[in-house]
Amino acid sequence: MKTRQLIVASIATVLMAVPAVASPGHAPGEGHSHADDTAYGKPGDPKKPARVVQVVFREDDGRMLFLPDRLKFKKGEQIRFQLRNNGAVDHEFVVGTVEENLKHMKDMEKNPDMEHDDPNAKRLKPKATGEILWQFTKVGTFDFSCLIPGHRQAGMFGTIVVE
């Protein structure tokens, strides 16, 4: 019995010393920044009011689309994105700068099974729904994209203008 307890204690000690790896999503410290404030805003506060904006994902005649694909908000406005995947394949919605999304798209090409369920990103199965609560704290032009390999290239991106 003492041998078994010693083995269990040894395994527990080793496991506590090894850093956790998140898979198939991001490893700790990789991927999207979850700082309180990014170049394109910050996670919303569920205790505060938000404007509801519906975004639909779909495929049509070989193209992949967001409807709408152009959104306009005021600086400081909090948005509750209600997301619906009406398509036949998985899609995701990732809010960021164009540069960040294009860089992350390259990472996704290397790891196509990476899934997002971050404050600024959500992956949805066909016919599924989800939400993102986001506050746009800075003026500028930002991007939303599906970063699953081939999807952005098939037209699945849009523009957010914050005034």
TrEMBL record:
The keyword Signal applies. CDD domains: Cupredoxin_like_2. Residues 25-48 are annotated as: Disordered. The keyword Metal-binding applies. Keywords: Copper, Metal-binding, Signal. It comes from the Bacteria. Residues 54-163 form the Blue (type 1) copper domain. InterPro entries: BlueCu_1, Cu-binding_ET, Cu_oxidase_CS, Cupredoxin. Residues 1-22 form the signal peptide. It holds the Pfam family Copper-bind. One of its GO terms (molecular function) is electron transfer activity. Residues 29-48 have a biased composition (Basic and acidic residues). This is Uncharacterized copper-binding protein, cupredoxin-like subfamily.
